[in-house]
Design goal:
Blueprint: H1 4-21, H2 27-55, E1 63-65, H3 69-76, E2 81-89, E3 94-102, H4 103-117, E4 121-126, E5 130-135, E6 149-159, H5 161-173, E7 185-190, H6 193-212, H7 223-228, E8 236-241, H8 242-256, E9 259-261, H9 264-271, H10 276-283, E10 289-291, H11 301-318, H12 326-341
Helix pairs in contact: 1-2, 3-4, 6-8, 6-11, 8-11, 9-10
Length: 351
């Protein structure tokens, strides 16, 4: 049985061409236009009817309504997963993102939003790691059409503490012979000026963030970096795991690729530098901004980028392997996602 909204839509589409074409076209064109719109209306109504029928079918996971969506998402989502939920407007823009949600919380927030936005039937695409949910019938009422809720995107971002404990227990049961994965540890030896510049940039950002942020907002800095490198000279050496290395590079990039206005004081510093290429920057009146990477006269921007990129590439390579160890596999996926979301700008700069 057709819902009233479908009947109204089809009826509206049939009547529209009569008023639109009557004063401008021949009778044949009016008939043709009316038949075309009638066919379109029939397709829309037919599709919506199929979607409604599929939505109430407990075995169909491509469509759902407010009543059946919770049970279907409970099967599609992992109960031990941690998810981010993006609420998408009909325009395609993201209205808001909620992080660190359990599967049950994701379902609850979606249903609450659907009820508030009066979304009846939705389509479902994707699997456990990423699911996209969109309303079947577009809401075209009023000026705020594009701002109305159009759907949701669910992305798995990690595991709950319970799941991680289980994965670690599984890892403990594996023998050394079974673990053939490459170690996620990297020797970072700041033994040249380019490497030291990366370290000094890291500490410059950390110092700035510590002074500007309070309490829980302060950055969590790996002790391995703090204990083994000199903030002033950049000298030091340490074995870093993947998470620590990515943190080092991401924070360092904020300074290296960060821009500052070329004021009189900064121009004077560049102009008085003993390094030729820095003096040229200071003397060039057309340069109005400079990036942090240009502040290291003991090396060159190209050398810094080369060292930076080599460690980023190695880290990407090591976390790209698929592992038979479920704990290691999940760890690799977390690192890959983190690196994708925080790709350093310096990698795309040309020097």
């Amino acid at each position: 049985m057709f819902k009233l909204r479908k009947f109204n839509l089809g009826f509206f589409l049939v009547l529209c061409p009569t008023a639109a074409f009557a004063s401008q076209n021949s009778p044949e064109m009016i008939v043709f236009g009316t038949l075309a719109m009638l066919a379109l209306a029939g397709v829309v109504v037919y599709y919506a009817s199929l979607a409604d029928n599929a939505a109430v079918d407990p075995e169909n996971y491509s469509f759902a309504d407010q009543t059946t969506l919770p049970s279907k998402l409970q099967i599609l989502l992992n109960e031990d997963g941690i998810y981010s939920l993006s609420v998408i407007r009909q325009s395609g823009n993201v209205e808001r993102v909620v992080e660190n949600l359990a599967a049950t919380d994701v379902v609850l927030k979606i249903i609450q939003t659907m009820q508030k936005a009066k979304i009846e039937t939705v389509s479902i695409n994707g699997g456990e790691d990423k699911i996209q949910i969109y309303r079947v019938m577009h809401n075209g009422k009023g000026r705020q059409e594009g701002k109305r809720i159009g759907g949701f995107k669910i992305v798995k971002t990690g595991w709950s503490a319970k799941k991680i404990d289980a994965l670690q227990n599984t890892q403990d049961e594996l023998s050394i012979e079974e673990d053939t994965d490459p170690d996620l540890e990297f020797n970072f030896d700041a033994n040249n000026e380019a490497m030291k510049a990366i370290i000094k940039s890291f500490f410059a950002i950390v110092s700035s963030m510590k002074h500007s942020l309070d309490g829980d907002d302060k950055p969590k800095i790996p002790n391995t970096i703090l204990e083994n490198f000199d903030p002033s000279t950049g000298a030091g050496r340490a074995t870093l795991d993947a998470a620590d290395l990515v943190t080092l590079l991401v924070y360092s990039d904020l300074h290296l690729s960060g821009e500052a206005e070329m004021n009189d004081a900064l121009r004077a510093q560049f102009s008085s530098s003993e390094t030729t290429w820095q003096r040229k920057i200071g003397e060039d009146k057309s340069i109005l901004t400079v990036t942090g990477i240009l502040g290291y006269g003991s090396t060159t921007p190209a050398e810094i980028k080369k060292e930076f990129a080599s460690f980023w590439d190695i880290c990407e390579l090591f976390v790209s392997f698929d592992s038979n160890n479920p704990y290691r596999q999940e760890l690799n996926e977390i690192h890959r996602e983190h690196m994708k979301e925080n790709r350093p700008k310096i990698l795309d700069l040309d020097f």
